[in-house]
Amino acid sequence: MTDPGDDLRDRASAAAVAVDSLDELRQARARFTGKKGDVTALLKQLGAMDPEERKLRGQEIHALKSDIDAIFDQRRQFLEDQARRTRLEAERIDVTLPGRLRTTGGLHPLESTARVVLQTLRDLGFTVEEGPEVEDARHNFDSLNFPPDHPAKEMQDTFFLADPFVDDQGAPLLLRTHTSPVQIRAMESYSPPLRIAAYGKVYRVDADVTHSPMFHQIEGFWVDRHINFRHLKGVLTELIQRVFGQEIPVRFRPSFFPFTEPSTEVDMGWQDGWMEVLGAGMIHPNVLRSVGIDPEQWQGFAFGLGIERFAMLRYGIQDIRLLYESDSRFLAGLNDRTVSR
Ligand code: FA5
Questions:
Q1: Nearest-CA neighbor of 301 among 334, 242, 341, 252?
Q2: Ligand 1 centroid vs 154 CA: distance in angstroms?
Q3: Which of 38, 93, 200, 216 has the largest CB neighbor count within 10 A?
Q4: DSSP H helices in 128-277
Q5: Measured in angstroms, how far is the CA atom of residue 178 from the centroid of ligand 1?
Q6: CB atoms within 10 A of CB 241
Q7: Position in ligand 1 atom list of the atom nearest CA 277
Q8: Long-range CB pairs of 287-295, under 8 A, 24+ apart, other chains included
Q9: How far is Cα 18 from Cα 256, in angstroms, rounded to an integer?
């Protein structure tokens, strides 16, 4: 005679392997060992048996129950392991994949260009000085030999500060229109020989594709005995070639500044034409006299260059205003366009 327990064991095994989830397994198990399960029903029959038979049958049913428990425990263990393996597989990290690159900030083209120019000037023996952006008319104009009625001193060219920002004579202070007042401040503070550069913001009432109301200049000047125009041309040619390379077209044109005589402007090749990048000249004797330097003993040359114009040439930028818009797409794209360094 077949043991009814064997039949239950077989059914429990079949039910356990037929399910694929822990929930279904719990429900299947309940059909055997739950309150209304088949094994529980067998246990309930024990009460009606006489003691001898109950003892025998009781042992059989308990053995059956622990077999069925083992069947379901084994399947549960398997399903739990399988779920863990699936989860680990899904969460697997491939440590050999390249990392995600963080985008880092970079130098703005104006700052990077200014640093290259200043470093080149340091390499040529210049030391770097600073001067104030809010200036008085004496340093910005008068000591630089501007005549009293020069048009640059008009409101339409220069930003003057409103009352109460006045100098010790009561004249309105102004936003410096160029870095040349640093020449005066340096020559007032130190005795020649001097080889000094200065970098900073300057302001003019001026705006179009090559002019900005605020822009940056680097000033340089060299005062020593027997300095002449050849020194000026040599230093500026060397500076431009070190920054842009030997091939860049450069031309010197005669020009006029009240504080230099003779004066020149330098153009560089740009878009099938020329772009003016700097003004320069031999420091006017009146300027040397205004700071107590004897022009019979000392001579000098000076130059002032526009950093925006240098940056436009270095990076091939068409419109100066792009330099102030902080558009990260434009700025990021520039790194590929640097023509030198
Ligand atoms: C001057 O500012 C003189 N102080 C330069 C100088 C210094 C001459 C020492 C002699 C001796 P200028 O106004 O030309 O000169 O300006 C010099 C350079 O600044 C120009 O060549 C140009 O590159 C740049 N620049 C002038 N105006 C603007 C502007 N509005 N926006 C951008 N760059 C400008």
A1: 252
A2: 17
A3: 216
A4: 137-140, 181-189, 229-244
A5: 7
A6: 15
A7: 23
A8: 287/143, 287/144, 287/145, 287/183, 287/184, 287/259, 288/187, 288/223, 290/142, 290/143, 290/145, 290/184, 291/143, 291/184, 291/187, 291/188, 292/188, 293/187, 293/192, 293/223
A9: 99
Locate 5 and state its tokens. 């327990």
Pocket around ligand 1 at a 6 A CB cut-off: 178, 180, 204, 206, 211-212, 215, 217, 219, 257, 260, 276-281, 302-306, 308-309, 320
Q: pLDDT tens for residues 88-135? A: 999 988 889 888 887 777 889 999 999 999 999 999 999 999 999 999
How many Å apart are CA 3 and CA 8, to the nearest integer?
A: 9
| Ligand 1 atom with least separation from CA of 204 | 30
Residue 272 has pLDDT above 90, yes or no: no
Indicate if the pLDDT at residue 340 is higher than 50: no
Task: Give me 326's structure tokens.
Answer: 């902080």
**C-beta contacts of 86-95 below 8 A and 24+ residues apart:** none
CA of 13 to the centre of ligand 1 (A): 94
